Amino acid sequence: MFHYTRWTALREVLLWIVALIFLLPFYFLISTALKSDAEVFSTNPVAPPSAMELGNFAEVFTATGQSNILLGLLNSVIITGGSILGLVVLGSLAGYVIARSTRRWSKVAYYLFLVAITLPTQLGTVPLYIGARTLGLTGSPWGMIVLYTGMLLPLSIFLYAGFFRGLGIAYEEAAVMDGATPTQVFFLIVLPLMAPATGTVAILAGLIVWNDFFTPLIFLAGSGAQTLPVAMYFYVGSLVSQWNQIFAIVIVSMIPIIAFYLFAQKKFMQGFAGGLKN
Amino acid sequence: MIQHRKAFRRGVVLALPVAGVLALTACSAAGSGDGDANGFTFTYQTSNNLESPYATLAKEYMKSHPGVTITLNPQPNDRYGQTLRTQLQGGNASDLIQTAPGTGQPHSALTLAQAGFLEPLGKSAASLIPKGSDSLFYIGDKLYAQPVDFTVNGVVYNTTAAAKAGITKFPATTEELVQNCKTLSAKGMSFVALAGGAPPNLIQITQVISATRVYAENPDWNQDRSTGSVTFANTQGWRDTLQTIVDLNKAGCFQAGAQGSGFDAITNGLSRGTALAGFIPGGSAKELMSAAPDQKMVVQAFPPAQGGKTFTLGGSNYSLSVNAASTKKKAIQDFLDWLAQPQNAKRYAEISGAIPVSGLESVDLAGSAYQPVEPLLRSGSYAPLPTTVWPNESVADAISSGVQGLLTGQNTIDQVLAKMDAAWDQ
Amino acid sequence: MTASTHRGDRSLAAGQRPATPRAGTPGRPPRPRRPRPLIAFGHWWWALPAIIAVTAIHYAATAAGGFFAFTDWSGIGSFEFIGWDNFTRILADPVQLGALRNTLLIAFGSVVLTNVIGLGLALALNRGLKTRYVLRVLLFMPVVLSPLAVSYIWKFIFEYNGPLNQFLGALGLTSLQKAWLADPTWSIWVILVVVVWQNTGIAMVIYLANLASVDPGIEEAAALDGAGVMQRFRHITLPSIRPAIAISTTLGLINGFRVFDQIMALTGGGPAGATETLATEVYKETFSLGNFGYGAALALMLTVIILVFAIVQQRVTRDRSKEGQ
């Protein structure tokens, strides 16, 4: 069909040039993080480091208090994992009945969720904050899990409902004919089929939670339960433009997500493409 | 389909123990933070990479008081007030917090106390309050802030770099200063290093210049503004203050790109000798010299306009307050009492480069970084930092965005003054 | 259209108007509408926890915020109703009007740029290249990173002594060197560049997914019939990627209105408010200045703007996708 012509080769070279320009920021990131304090002030920012200085990275792990990066990592893992769990359980159950029910309430509920996706969070932030403070949910990772689950449920339900709508009901019908209860149908027939939608929900929602900075800054700031971006923010703030050390923590903070991305890159892209199979 | 099912089961089998482990580690992580009855957390602002005097003192305290752990949470000073307020509102702020005396900044102690965020302090702090400034520390008979310093707010001046550039005498007038700017920029240097992208530095330059233009003429200007007999817009001194900033900018007195710089521009400029002066609190002279021992730095008052009177700003810039939501009040009060002891107050002054909070009269300033301003201090030619006295933080906010706008040409002086008045009356 | 195209269209369409029941799929008979189905799937109360959580966290909180927009509450203590005062103050304040302008500029600017660049990359990477998978992985990478971390890298690049000015200097273009992040004209565009750099990958994969379901045979046939590149793009490719355009622009617009982290990390809204948006003003008024009622009024405006554009977008794309089918 398509032949690899000189044209294609030219296109390939051109795209690599574009990609390298596009990725140039990563060059600055890595080369600066490897410079010593003296070098980062004295040399041209574009020049590569004269020697590999790994001390900046060692420094990152010595930070305590609010910029403790390992504690931030642990909190991020707990909060992201817990939120995904909540979103998958509550989202799939609600998405399923809403997709399958033909009653009027399900349509109303569906629009309730759909509109909530577009509602910006700013207006509700302070009332939520006051509510969370009254309930003692600020400053704890568990409060954040509850909050994120509620905040991202509309997205999760939207994705699950769309998925279940596209899923044939033949198996479920057959099971009901055989006398299975609705609960059995869901757990034995539907649940094993929904892995692709669950992957999409986990990746989209997980990424939002993992990278969120504003919500934990407000709800967790100062509590010692800070997440990775917040720990990075405080670490950077105490540095005042020591770019070699700033970039060391930026790299450290990026490693988990980039590793996970490279491991599951296809799933990531599918997730963003709306769960399409290509 | 069978594959899906397998994958899913594997997922469940993995997820359960992982969740369990996370639950356990989270409990232990949360526990270690506040389990210790003698430990408390301490938040203060930093603007450079040197060890803060608070950190040094906290470490010394921990050494002499085994069993006490102080967890330090330094915060960047360009958004310190904002961060602190957010944390206080969420109930997550540190037990001990660095505040500022008075009312005019987001982290001002009395503003925070009025909002119910602070706990009144024990009596050990009372003896430290500088004479005549009770109103910056008390609401009624309740004391909310313990002062830690007497700071001279003028400019920190690098005499080594100045000598190298051929400037042997600190300019006596602003006009003289401006004349030096051209020569310096030809050499790739600047007279002033300005952090024009950092609100606190924009507020500082405006206040310091206002000392000679406003407060030297009328030391009671703040009171007059409160009663409404003057405004920013109808005070020629404020107009001159802002005009001076515009003139300095036009004459190339600031480093290139100053309108977007952070505090690193000042730290690097002064310690490497590419700039001669910075609008930073006097104590920083000492901090900077410890980072760059080959550069000599002194504190100078910003020169008046031709024919004007030399004048500067002085008073307590920093104070310590206790979070009302803290559960470690006893441990904190012990620490504050320790800090209030004369030898420890002196120790703070020594490491921070400030003047001890009480007893300015008895301190020998000869040979210190403060020698150039000694006559002003002795004759009482200084006013308190205006932002400690102003009624709300919006005035300072109007200055920081307004003055940056003057540097970039977005605002006119009239607009900035009008905004400052509007903020005051808000 | 081939079966695969059809499937692609359907699943994409699910993103924009999922409420419409889809009929006529092979292997699934159309579900008749009836008040009481003979077979029940699941229990209605399974949706209850989700409905309660969303009602509380989205609707109740937003409604409470909307309520305070008409008060002078400072976040603490008592408050008074002041009617539309907050809104008249917003509309009279040049800073807030500038923030509104910036909000719209970033939202629409980022939608246009990410979609044009993303579509270009998707078309170039769709077929033929040997290394297309590696390139996709690399070009998508910024999407997964935290906006805060990304902003730190770009802040370094745009610093006065940073790589960009050094590069301009090396080219002899010293007159173009400037304090990019403190320049009243350029700083907003710098923020746009950072947002576009990070979000282009999303548009790219949405278009790639759609393009993968377009039968290459049709395009080849058109090529054999002598249709030029542009003609093929206009008459074959463009109509078949309409669903992707709809999704990608909706997503981009909603995200564009909410840009916050990048601005806080790059300029903090400066110089002198030149890069403030409604989102950053809400934060500043509410959390640093304690003007909660005023901040809520700003947030209410942002909410209304987003809802209006979301509805307009729904209408426009619904017509378009009908055309496309």
From TrEMBL, chain A:
It is found in: Cell membrane. PANTHER family: ABC TRANSPORTER PERMEASE PROTEIN MG189-RELATED-RELATED, LACTOSE TRANSPORT SYSTEM PERMEASE PROTEIN LACG. PROSITE patterns: ABC_TM1. InterPro entries: MetI-like, MetI-like_sf. Its main location: membrane. The chain crosses the membrane at residues 12-30, 77-98, 110-130, 142-164, 185-210, 216-236, 243-264. One of its GO terms (cellular component) is plasma membrane. Keywords: Cell membrane, Membrane, Transmembrane, Transmembrane helix, Transport. One of its GO terms (biological process) is transmembrane transport. It is a multi-pass membrane protein. Residues 73-264 form the ABC transmembrane type-1 domain. This is Raffinose/stachyose/melibiose transport system permease protein. Belongs to the binding-protein-dependent transport system permease family.
UniProtKB/TrEMBL annotation, chain C:
GO terms for biological process: transmembrane transport. It comes from the Bacteria. One of its GO terms (cellular component) is plasma membrane. The keyword Transport applies. Signal peptide: none annotated. Residues 100-313 form the ABC transmembrane type-1 domain. Residues 1-33 are annotated as: Disordered. Keywords: Cell membrane, Membrane, Transmembrane, Transmembrane helix, Transport. Pfam families: BPD_transp_1 (PF00528). The chain crosses the membrane at residues 38-61, 104-125, 137-157, 186-209, 240-260, 292-312. InterPro entries: ABC_transporter_permease, MetI-like, MetI-like_sf. Belongs to the binding-protein-dependent transport system permease family. This is Raffinose/stachyose/melibiose transport system permease protein. It comes from Thermocatellispora tengchongensis. The lineage of its organism: Bacteria, Bacillati, Actinomycetota, Actinomycetes, Streptosporangiales.
